[in-house]
Design a protein that fits this description.
Layout: E1 7-23, E2 29-47, E3 52-57, H1 71-83, E4 89-94, H2 105-121, H3 127-137, H4 141-144, E5 150-154, E6 158-161, E7 169-174, H5 181-187, H6 205-212, H7 220-226, H8 229-238, E8 245-248, E9 255-259, H9 262-272, E10 278-282
Parallel strand pairs: 3-4
Antiparallel strand pairs: 1-2, 2-4, 2-5, 5-6, 7-9, 7-10, 8-9
Helix pairs in contact: 1-2, 1-3, 5-7
Length: about 300
């Protein structure tokens, strides 16, 4: 990436808990979730062009090569239509996050495209209207637009302020298995959960983990039934040094663990590495940071 080449990060979205609170008449499930964003991220950059094109690189690019209409391209076309212009950009996505893994990779990529292209094309669209457009692309896209901690409700359209998140570390592990979200929802059984009761914030990571332990990911049991390797990942995370909480994110198969610090998370990630697993450790994403040369 050259210094003058516009770029945006698409950080991994982590559901610290996920309650299924109901189901609408049209079949869509209602959710309550506390979302944070990890330092692990894809990166989207652009160059001027007459038409619209997307190229891919990175360890997980092969999982998207067969897609004729990647979410990034759909986001670009939707924004161009909203702005009354022809879509024109040569986009490049460095795909560092696993595909269909419960950490919102595709949604984060689409959100990054909307942010990047709104600025590059000078599209005059209010944040609220951009969020409405984002929701049409996917339930997780609106919360990925600002990429900061938030509480999600409804089918993803209700976004409110999160409790104050203390400094902490996080490890992410995916066992190398793609797990489509619709399949997990179809496999889910049982009733619905009430929304969680949360404080306004936590003084430290241990206090946050203790409160989160009273919540759950209502899709975890169904996901394990479809992908037993998730249970192995959770057991390894839970047994790691300094782990405060281990849980699956979203619809899986990626799982996370919380640690008191980014340094402790990085040490745990190093110890947990094994063939076939994607493992990342570090801190949470901080908005306003410049795009690094390597994500």
């Amino acid at each position: 990436m050259t210094p003058d080449q516009p770029a945006a990060l698409a950080p991994a979205k982590i559901n610290l808990y996920l309650h299924v609170t109901g189901r609408r008449a049209d079949g869509y499930h209602l959710l309550d979730s506390l979302v944070v964003f990890a330092g692990a991220a894809d990166r989207l950059s652009l160059r001027p062009a007459d038409g619209l094109a997307l190229t891919l690189s990175g360890p997980f690019a092969a999982g998207l090569v067969a897609e004729p209409d990647n979410l990034v391209l759909r986001a670009a076309r939707a924004l161009a239509e909203a702005g009354g212009i022809a879509p024109h950009a040569s986009l490049h996505l460095q795909k560092s996050l696993p595909v269909a893994s419960g950490i919102g990779g595709g949604s984060a990529d689409a959100a990054a495209a909307l942010r990047l292209l709104r600025a590059a094309w000078g599209v005059a669209i209010a944040d609220t209207d951009l969020a409405t457009l984002a929701l049409r692309l996917g339930a997780d896209v609106p919360v990925c637009l600002p990429s900061r901690p938030a509480r999600m409700g409804g089918v993803g359209e209700i976004i409110t302020a999160a409790p104050t998140i203390p400094p902490c570390g996080m490890v992410l592990i995916n066992p190398g298995i793609a797990l489509p979200t619709p399949a997990v929802f179809r496999a889910r059984t049982g009733g619905f959960s009430p929304p969680a009761t949360l404080p306004t914030g936590w003084p430290n990571a241990a206090a946050m983990a203790a409160d989160l332990a009273t919540t759950a990911n209502d899709l975890q049991h169904a996901a394990i039934g479809l992908c037993p390797a998730i249970a192995e990942v959770l057991a390894a995370l839970g047994a790691s040094a300094d782990c405060l909480l281990a849980r699956m994110s979203g619809s899986g198969a990626t799982c996370f663990a919380l640690y008191p610090s980014a340094g402790q998370a990085l040490a745990a990630a190093t110890a947990l590495a094994r063939p076939g697993w994607w493992v990342w450790g570090g801190g949470l994403h901080s908005t306003g940071e410049s795009v690094p040369d390597d994500v």
